[in-house]
Structures are given as C-alpha cells and as structure tokens.
Amino acid sequence: MISINFFSSQSALADEGGVPFWMSGQYASMAAVPMATGWSLVAIPYVYSGKADKSKTFQHGTSLNAGVSTRESLILMQLGYVGEEKILGGQSYIGFGWGPGSNTTTASLSTTNPGTQFNRANTSNGSTDIYPLASLTWNQGNNNYKAYVTGDIPVGTYNRTSLASIGIGHAALDAGGGYTYLNSKTGLEFSGVLGATYNWMNSQTNYKNGIDSHLDWSVSQFLSQNWQVGIAGYGYYQLTADSGSGDKVGAFKSRIAAIGPQIGYLFNIGKNQAYINLRAYKEFWAQNRVEGYATIATISIPLGN
User: Fold this and answer.
1) Taking the model in full, what pTM does it have?
2) Is the Cβ–Cβ distance between 200 and 45 less than 8 Å?
3) Fewer Cβ within 10 Å of end Cβ, the chain: N or C?
4) Torsion over CA of 183, 80, 175 and 165, rounded to 10 degrees?
5) How many C-beta atoms lie closer than 10 Å to residue 65's C-beta?
6) Confidence bin at 11 (pLDDT 50/70/90)
7) Are 159 and 194 in contact (CB under 8 A)?
C-alpha cells in the first residue's frame, strides 16, 4: 500500500474571510502508511462551491461583505522524495507543493470606506502559495503512525482589495500526527490525521488569524487488491480568536465539518504502485465560514529513485 502525503491550501475567500491555511479533506485513506522509497508526484484536482447567509458579515482586506458565495478550482501538485535511511526508526519524506487555480467570489453587499457596492463579484486566476512538507512514518504490523510539519510561504496570488484570492497573504506553520489501521487480510482500513496551525500576521491587512485545529478521517474497505470504497470526512475548529489592528469583525472564531463517499483504485506503473482516490464532501456545522460542497481527487504517481 501507499500513503497520500500532501499539503495545505487556501480555499474560498481569504484568511480574514474565515478560511484557514489548512485545506480540509486533503488526507484520507492510508494517510499514515509508509510510501515506497524514491521520488513521487502527487496531484490533487480540487473543486469547491459554498455560500453563507446574508446575515453573516465577512472581512476581506479592506472590505466588509455580506451574502458571500464562492467557487474555486485548483490543481495542486507536490513533488517529494522518500529517503532510504530511517530517522528515529521512521521513514522520512520531504516535499514542496504548488498549483494553479481560479477563484470567483461574490457578495450581495460589500462595504469599503467610503463606498458601498451591491452584487460585487471578483475573479482571481493565478497560483497558490508554496507549501513545504516533511514527515516521518512508522509501521508496526497493521498499525501505522505519522508525524508531520508543513507550512505556507506566501508567494501566491493575493490581493487585499479583491474578494477573491488564491494565496492567503501570510505565513503559517502547521504540525500534527496521524494513524492508519490497515488489515491486509480483511481489507479494513481507517485513518485519522490531527493537527494545529499557527498563523503569522498578514502585513498587508494587519489581520492575524487565531490558532486552528483540524481533523481529517477515513473509513474504507478493500473489495479486492485494487478497489476500495468507504466514507471520509473532516472537522475544523478555531481554538483562539482573530486579532490585529486591521480586524474589524472581532474574534471571528470559525468551524466546519463534512462527510461524504470515497472510492480508491490501486494500479501499477511498471514495477511501481500508483493510486487514485476520489471523494466528495457535504459540509455542515458552519460558523463564520461559507458552507457547501468539495470534490477532491488524489492521484499519486511514483517516479522511481
């Protein structure tokens, strides 16, 4: 089996808009299973659509916005390397992620000092920030463990005067751990990855996100050596309040949860094993977040040594 190591992404509005650094749902099946040594490429096409009630006000940069809806599509890619030598008894991985994308965000009412605009819409086309990732994984029979650290280098497409951005406009650091139970005899698998994010100040807006927590999880059953079906979900909960001299909406602590089906397929490219996983999420339990639907396809391709 292989594991899916990936990175984080801005989704929907921007950091001040109630959307964190972490892209929920990026981890699913076999999240903590060690990978084959050598180079690999992971691609994740990601499509999201969500909206919030008109009674909820979101801040993005210089504007306050109500009746917000957003559509985003990204193709995130990560090139990484798994070392042959173990570190602390675990398998080491290091990678860097980036991707092109498009974001369209609308607001039924948008206020920017000194004016007000109705039915405002902005579209941003460009690229994400850069996401470095390092991890260690351990295997003990059916039990697999992961420790990781990742972050955000804010070089992507971001504009504080636009409703729509692809980068988040500030640096972030995220760390956590994961577990996968994988029984090769029965085909039962379940995984969970738990982590927390520290956000630095956005110097363009003087807005600072609070500390975020997140959980991605998966339960699946292999029907054969190749095919897998199951369910996946995620939860996000902001632990501390937003702050900064540019914060016009107060604490703005946010949360979201989601659940949906998944299907996976293992196949070989030469002597190396590749993997495709498709999952769809329906969000609920939203607070200070847009709420909607996400579709994520993970394609992991081994490139050899």
Assistant:
1) 0.93
2) no
3) C
4) -120
5) 24
6) very low
7) no
Whether 138 shows a pLDDT value over 90: the answer reads yes
CA distance 273 to 288: 41
Token representation of residue 57: 């006000």
Alpha carbons 168 and 153: distance in angstroms, whole number: 9
Structure tokens at 277: 């996983």
Say if CB 93 and CB 132 are below 8 A apart.
no
How many CA within 13 A on the CB side of residue 140?
Answer: 7
40-87 pLDDT per residue, tens: 999 999 999 999 999 999 998 889 999 999 999 999 999 999 999 999
Bridge partner residues of 137 (DSSP): 91, 146
3-state secondary structure the chain: CCCCCCCCCCCCCCHHHCCCCCCCCCCCCCCCCCCCCEEEEEEEEEEEEEECCCCCEEEECCEEEEEEEEEEEEEEEEEEEECCCCECCEEEEEEEEECEEEEEEEEEEEEECCEEEEEEEEEEEEECCEEEEEEEEEEECCEEEEEEEEEEECCCCCCCCCCCCCCCCCCEEEEEEEEEEECCCCCEEEEEEEEEEEECCECCCCEECCCEEEEEEEEEEECCCCEEEEEEEEEEEECCCCECCCCCCCCCCCEEEEEEEEEEEEEEECCEEEEEEEEEEEEEEEECCCEEEEEEEEEEEEEEC
pLDDT at residue 5 in the model: 43
Torsion of CA 234, 239, 244, 248, to 10 degrees: 70
